[in-house]
């Protein structure tokens, strides 16, 4: 199962990074960071209308290389100029061709909050996210225990970040809510086989009370898709591939934001 492979690969890389830089050292870097100047993502999400989160992603396990040419900084700047509310940056190198460096550079040069898109399995990765400029981390319910969901989110909040707690099934939405999640992401892509079912988020939306912002993730392609999600009461959409492939990123984002 691909998700198991992803987590195993993440664990191996993590062990290697920890040998180069201890958690103590990382904590020291974080403690000396200047306070963030970025807007508060949770406040943005609670604003009326549909917010757009655009993703910087070179490749994916299901699609392989998405874009041959990957000027990640120019892409992030195009997103920002088009008025996106946050930018998601893949940092997973083996399956998504991501890198922490992308997160760091983009976070330094855009004023919107950035999300470290990765398979968070250890507090070390949360400090790393912070050290590299992220305002938001991802916690995937399918790969974490109830206790990890709670303590990892708490750690992110203690460091001045927020956590998107990502669910794919009704059971996972329940676990996300029980863990005290303040932001929930409902994925349309089954991370166990990478199949996309666009109606998944529509079906599960009603499980989340209105007080908690919900983000629809993955497989969002058209204006009609975004209209359906807005009508279903989603606070935000997270779009990767469609925007990465588009030659008219600004126009597309402007259209989505106007919904
Ligand atoms: O490129 P898409 O289909 O628009 O999907 C974006 C995003 O939802 C997807 O990249 C994603 C959702 N959950 C994840 C967890 C890890 C890595 C990636 C993801």
Automatic annotation (TrEMBL):
Gene Ontology process terms (BP): L-tryptophan biosynthetic process
EC number in record = 4.1.1.48
Molecular function (GO) terms for this protein are:
indole-3-glycerol-phosphate synthase activity; phosphoribosylanthranilate isomerase activity
Instruction: Enumerate the UniProt keywords alphabetically.
Output: Amino-acid biosynthesis, Aromatic amino acid biosynthesis, Decarboxylase, Lyase, Tryptophan biosynthesis
PANTHER family associated with the record: INDOLE-3-GLYCEROL-PHOSPHATE SYNTHASE, TRYPTOPHAN BIOSYNTHESIS PROTEIN
HAMAP family (alphabetical): IGPS_B
* Name assigned to this protein: Indole-3-glycerol phosphate synthase
